[in-house]
Specification:
The structure holds two protein chains of two kinds. By secondary structure, chain A is an alpha/beta fold. Chain A is built from twelve helices and 16 strands. An eight-stranded parallel sheet of chain A has the order 2-1-4-10-9-6-7-8, with helices on both faces. A six-stranded mixed sheet of chain A has the order 11-12-13-14-15-16. In chain A, strands 3-5 form a two-stranded parallel sheet. Classes of the chains: A alpha/beta, B alpha/beta.
Chain lengths: ~450, ~550
């Protein structure tokens, strides 16, 4: 094996920002030490000396960029610390590398993560305050519109072991984003959601796909699900861009979850999905998993073999998938394809009220110990995906958040503006927010 | 009195410096196949009394030994023993024909993951000796975290094959980068024999000239290394590159250290670009390249661009381009084809500015070029286009180098919010065509450009006056209860309350102690990086992981003290 092989087949930009001076708390899994050994491993392997692999620093995101996605309550400054600006900024930087053609692929190897942060954010849940993939996507859609003005189709494959409930919430009614989450079954793990019946809002049914894998799924099970569910969906959706929310708590050493993926398995998964951009999400086996999995993802993105990665705690028994797990996954994959191709006519919860699809949600912020009550409504519009309306109560007076979706019809835009004006006049709400996802409409 | 010698690519220069003045200087052609003879020749050519050489109190030599050896394939074969553990296969980083991978490995914290097996390495070493191999390098992954496996392998190999010279990876650098450590140790081993011969011959040449002062080699990072130390770590001083010129300019223009500055050294064939900040030249982040492989040998951050006074003018797509080809001197100095210098002369004539050599000859040459090629209507148009092309290429290279330095990764919010550090505020321009390019470069770079008075042998002055440099990494783990400086082979027990401040003090003390052995106790050792991580082990017990880097940056002896 000569050194010549160490020439990346795809050029790769790694936006690496371990935030060595930030922690949720000194003993929290999301602490300074989290990417320390990843840094050591990547440097010791000489990863950034491989021709075609380049390390980049993030740029801090602006509050404006955060608020292109989120309703941060009470203020964006209260919800979003400099650490969040750095990790969101790292994801945006990764997207720019690819969109500007500087690199073929990019990996935002940043912390803190974001996929549990929902459209309305009052604070931290599941270690996340703001959703860094969603912020990245908004920056792509804002800054790089397709020349013909048609919607850019983007697929997010979330392989974090926990259900990406924040991303699901944000893309719930977005027909141009296919959100696929592969996670450990919600009956056995936080946040307890992510079942197949949760498949999108009234304007985007079948564009949210949940693949809830049984505990103890390993390399073979994951690869089966990717080959028999994820890849067929991607082939049909034909996205312009594929993003992988690359959480690493599905590793066999993770202390918070129960899956059995290996670093080599993750590399194979990544190779199969072939994403343009990866964004680190969770993963808290900071010594036993992250150094090797991050190395594996970098090599896979660069188109280099990762089959020689040795992991200290791995034994052949870990790779031994139980037949009943494989059978379960095979049945699951069929159901997933059915859900995408023949989605139900109505969302799984809520009901129609005067032309709106309405559901009530209770959201618990496990880190910040907040309780939020939401009434979420989508205008049932024949022209576009429909105006969104969220009433949010969290320790005090209600807030009203109105979302004019990208590519909204003029009717929905006008309705949104009128509703905001009327709501402000009533004085009922602590805050009335209006977010127009169309960058031109926002001006 | 200090003696500086720089054996460069074309010439070998020597100067004697006394009380801030060059009291003697000489220049002879470099004999690439016999550098010690070049040194003897330049000493013989020094116009001074033999007594003056006897009064020399320090001598520093800059060489290109390594480059020549690599190019000419004169390196010794090396037996390479690697050990790895978790992560990528060690074979990815291998070099040469004689490689053995030993069983056993450490993880990123230096903890043993698999037990070391030395037997195979011993057998391999004995076989290498049979094949005529005389040098061996032992390199383990994560050895700066814990050198034990390397040490055990080295000991075993030495017992099995006592004749092999041995290099251990952790002794050369405390930085993490296995492929670079392998290359650094490999070249160290491959140079050992050649370097020993070279130093022996140099010592003889110096003694024959009546010089018995402490002798140093110039390193690529602008520092000096005592001969004795260089025998152990030949790779550190095998190539001085542009370090002599850079340090020479610092000696001749101390003002340039007062702000972030750019150094442009425009020679016949190339333009070398270096940067200064906080009074010393900027170092490359990781280390220099040798024989096509990246190493951990520290070097100055420099760029060499194929544009010089003798660079040929040529055209592509109706545009005038400059260099990188050179086919002899400019027409103004007796050459046969128009070069950048000729173009500068033509502009100088037209604008009543500076010219060099026979400017009329330059104009005829450019006239001919304009007529023959049709790149421009007349000689002046052609010359201006050439000048513009050169300035643009230099400006682009400068921009790229500054960007490269400022793009250094940052890993803390504090550093990220601080932003880019280096902003050159002035340019120092040296070399033959310097004066002719001052004005257009000032415009092209948007910075004031200074042209210091021409000083022959500035490179040798730099060699004469440069101070040693040094660096080390200290690691401490309060949980495991030890602190370690891998390059100094120091491991000491520490208490659970060991702090960053103690680590910084220890790092400085170890570095100062190593400098004291070179007779240099009072140099400004600085802490470049200092990190403390609160860590939790799997049982949830907390401890501290401390990493401190200390260094002595390149600097000069006070010229008036010599």
């Amino acid at each position: 094996m000569g050194f010549a092989m160490l020439h990346a087949r795809n050029s790769l930009g790694v936006v690496f920002f371990p935030a060595f001076d930030w922690a949720i708390s000194p003993t929290h899994p999301e602490r300074e030490e989290r990417l320390l050994y990843t840094r050591d491993q990547l440097h010791e392997e000489g990863l950034f000396d491989i021709e075609g692999i380049t390390e980049y620093r993030p740029k801090l995101a602006t509050y404006e960029q955060i608020e292109r996605v989120h309703f941060c309550l009470p203020t964006v400054q209260r919800v979003c610390s400099p650490s969040h600006l750095a990790s969101a900024g790292g994801a945006i930087r990764a997207a720019q590398l690819v969109m500007d053609g500087l690199t073929d692929k990019a990996f935002a190897l940043v912390r803190p993560p974001g996929h549990h942060a929902m459209r309305v954010s009052h604070g931290n849940r599941g270690f996340c305050n703001v959703n860094i993939e969603a912020i990245m996507l908004a920056s792509i859609r804002d800054k790089y519109p397709k020349p013909d003005g048609s919607p850019r189709k983007i697929a997010i494959v979330d392989t974090d072991c926990h259900h990406g409930d924040g991303s699901q919430d944000i893309f719930w009614n977005d027909p141009h984003t296919l959100f696929i989450s592969l996670h450990q079954d919600g009956r056995t793990l936080y946040p307890g959601t992510g079942f197949i019946r949760e498949c999108g809002g009234p304007g985007a049914l079948g564009r949210t796909i949940n693949i809830a894998l049984p505990p103890n799924t390993g390399d073979a099970g994951y690869l089966y699900a990717v080959e028999h569910a994820v890849l067929p969906l991607l082939a049909d959706f034909k996205p312009d861009l594929i993003i992988n929310s690359a959480g690493q708590d599905n590793h066999f050493t993770d202390p918070l979850a129960n899956m059995r993926l290996s670093a080599q398995g993750y590399a194979a998964l990544n190779k199969a999905i072939n994403p343009d951009i990866c964004v680190l999400e969770g993963g808290y086996s900071i010594r036993g998993a992250l150094p090797y999995v991050n190395l594996a993802i970098c090599l896979a993105l660069a188109g280099l073999p990762a089959t020689d990665i040795v992991e200290p705690d791995w034994t052949p028994s870990i790779a031994c998938e139980k037949p009943e797990i494989m059978d379960y996954i095979a049945t699951l994959c069929d159901a997933v394809l059915e859900c995408y191709h023949k989605p139900p006519t109505h969302p799984h919860e809520g009901k129609e009220e005067q032309g709106w699809w309405v559901r009530r949600k209770h959201i618990f912020y496990d880190t910040d110990m907040l309780q939020e009550e939401q009434k979420e409504s989508w205008l049932l519009c024949p022209q576009c995906s429909g105006l969104g309306r969220i009433e949010s109560v969290c320790n005090g007076a209600p807030n009203l958040c109105l979302l004019i979706p990208r590519y909204a019809c003029p009717q929905c835009r006008a309705t949104g503006q009128a509703l905001a004006q009327a709501a402000r006049a009533t004085g009922r709400y602590a805050q009335v927010r209006l977010l127009d996802e169309d960058p031109l409409g926002a001006r | 009195m200090y003696l500086g010698i720089d054996a460069g690519g074309t010439h070998t220069d020597a100067v004697l410096v006394e009380q801030g003045h060059v009291v003697a200087q000489a220049k002879v052609p470099t004999q690439h196949d016999n550098l010690p003879a070049s040194v003897a020749a330049v000493l013989a050519a020094l116009p001074c009394e033999p007594a003056a050489l006897a009064a020399v109190s320090r001598v520093t030599v800059g060489t290109t030994l390594a480059v020549n050896a690599v190019v000419q394939g004169k390196l010794d074969p090396v037996g390479l023993v690697l050990s790895a553990g978790p992560g990528l296969a060690p074979e990815r980083a291998a070099l040469g024909q004689h490689v053995y991978v030993a069983g056993g490995g450490l993880d990123h914290r230096g903890q043993e993951v698999t037990r070391l097996d030395v037997q195979g390495a011993c057998a391999a070493a004995r076989a290498w000796v049979q094949q005529g191999v005389q040098a061996c390098a032992v390199v383990g992954k994560f050895s700066p975290r814990n050198p034990e496996h390397e040490q055990q392998l080295a000991k075993a190999v030495h017992r099995a094959a006592p004749g092999l010279s041995l290099t251990q990876g952790h002794s050369l650098s405390g930085a993490l980068n296995f492929p670079r450590r392998v290359a650094t140790a490999y070249y160290n081993a491959a140079f050992t024999h050649l370097h020993t011969q070279f130093i022996d011959a140099l010592e003889q040449a110096l003694a024959a000239a009546g010089i018995h002062a402490p002798a140093y080699l110039l390193k690529a990072d602008g520092g000096a290394l005592p001969f004795a130390l260089s025998r152990r770590e030949p790779v550190q001083s095998a190539l001085s590159g542009p370090a002599a010129s850079v340090m020479g300019l610092l000696a001749l223009c101390p003002e340039l250290a007062q702000q972030d500055s750019l150094l442009l050294d425009i020679g016949g064939t190339t333009t070398d670009i270096a940067l200064f900040t906080a009074g010393s030249p900027v170092l490359e982040r990781d280390g220099m390249r040798l024989g096509g492989r990246a190493t951990l040998v520290r070097s100055l951050a420099t760029v060499s661009l194929g544009i010089g006074g003798d660079s040929l003018l040529h055209g592509a797509g109706g545009q005038v381009l400059v260099g990188p080809e050179r086919r002899g001197r400019a027409v103004a100095f007796g050459g046969h084809e128009a070069t950048l210098l000729d173009a500068l002369n033509v502009v100088g004539l037209a604008e009543q500015g500076l010219t060099a050599g026979d400017a009329e000859a330059s104009r005829h040459a450019l006239d001919a070029v304009a007529q023959r090629t049709g790149w421009a209507e007349d000689a002046l148009g052609c010359a201006k286009a050439a000048r513009q092309a050169a300035v643009q290429a230099i400006a682009a290279a400068v921009h790229e180098l500054v960007q490269h330095i400022n793009a250094a990764p940052v890993y803390t919010l504090a550093a990220l919010m601080e932003g880019a550090a280096l902003r050159p505020a002035a340019v120092w321009l040296v070399g033959a065509p310097a004066a002719l390019l001052r004005q257009p470069l000032a415009q092209g770079l948007g910075l004031p450009v200074h042209v210091p008075p021409h000083a022959a042998c500035a490179n040798a002055v730099g060699a004469a006056l440069t101070q040693p440099t040094a660096s080390l990494t200290l690691l401490a783990d309060t949980g495991a209860g030890f602190m370690r400086v891998p390059t100094a082979d120091i491991t000491r027990p520490i208490s659970r309350s060991y702090s960053v401040q103690q680590a910084e003090a220890d790092a400085k003390a170890v570095l100062k102690a190593s400098l004291a052995t070179q007779g240099l106790p009072e140099l400004p050792v600085e802490i470049v990086a200092s990190d403390m991580f609160a860590t939790l082990n799997d049982q949830g017990y907390g401890s501290k992981d401390i990493r401190v880097q200390a260094q002595l940056v390149p600097g000069l002896v006070c010229p008036h003290c010599v």
